[in-house]
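Risk mitigation, structural track. In case the binding assays with cytidine-5'-monophosphate fail to produce interpretable data, a predicted complex structure has been prepared as a fallback.
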Amino acid sequence: MSSLRGKRIILAVTGSIAAYKAVQLASDLYKAGALVDTILTAEALRFVQPLSFAAITHRLVASDLWTPDPGGGVLHVELAAAADALLVAPATAHTIARLALGLADDLLGCIALSTRAPLLVAPAMESHMYQHPTTQQHLATLRERGAVVIEPGVGHLASGASGVGRLAEPAEILGYLAATLGRTGDLAGRHLVVTAGGTREPIDPVRFISNRSSGKQGYALAEAARDRGARVTLVSSAELPPPVAVQVVRVETAQQMLEAVQAACRDADALLMAAAVADYRVAHPATEKLKKGAAPLTLELVENPDILASVRGPFVRVGFAAETSDLLANAGAKLRAKGLDLIVANDVSARDAGFGVETNRVTLLDASGAEELPLLSKREVAERVLDRVVRLLAERRA
Ligand code: C5P
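Fallback model:
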């Protein structure tokens, strides 16, 4: 996740049994390229050891307010000034109350008051403690001050009970962090509509016609745009977990996708149609499950609306062309026929590019010519496409 690379994150761990999950979180942050300094409250030390974090992050781990600063300054002042984000995960009810009240009786409390970096709080506690009006009021206070509260999940709790209060998963926490750090990116203030997945056209209540599109390229685009500050609406027919801090509109058929795209595009700055929309649908889907029979089954197919061709801007319009032959000629024809600003062409017959895999090899084609990109991760492809979108938006403004 490129937006975390080189970012100074203070990971504050407090005294919840979920503290052990913070070790995984620290590891994921480190792998994403973040520079992680870890603060453990006195109660966190009952659950986890500083060494676990130091071995993973290769950076400072401190609990005591009076820990000497390695650079000779005052530790909480130096950490607070250098931080890009203060992430409290897991956050106990006690720490949430202390943060809301501004208590400064330990290292975390002093850093929280000293820093101007965004605060993210991921609560983890028993359901009753979480739902108590006191905790909820403190969380509301933190939100009012601009903090991002990463809601806990529902499930098995340490007490054996089941309910709300589980620490959010590390991937979700990283998503919120990337989105928060990207708030001032080059797509800040923009609304991007992204489509993803292969549409499903019903044959009967249990069967459908679809294609091999996984939706991964579209999801990578949505996350990358979010992490560059955009508000993102993702119109999706893909079976993938929803990205955090992105508005997801679930659809199945091309017709539903058309309606969702039309609605989302009312105030859009750009539409990126990464979805593999089925060109045809079954004219008359059966209302009951079709039975096996002696006669061959014939399905009458009718053409679906072309979403890109029918949703015309003022906004920037980007198409995707999945081809198995004559890549550039076919993609170029689509660019012109649909009046697009840009088309992302990929040869889906290659094994390392296109459907289902994590990588893609694409050519960016616009009226001025073709730019062939090397084999890249889908996230990197997304970044390159968004570079073009940023440029196109700037040109429109000029
Ligand atoms: O014509 P073709 O389907 O190959 O064009 C691909 C591009 O057009 C993709 O961006 C796809 O999302 C979009 N498309 C569409 N509506 C359709 C078919 C494709 O918007 N019915």
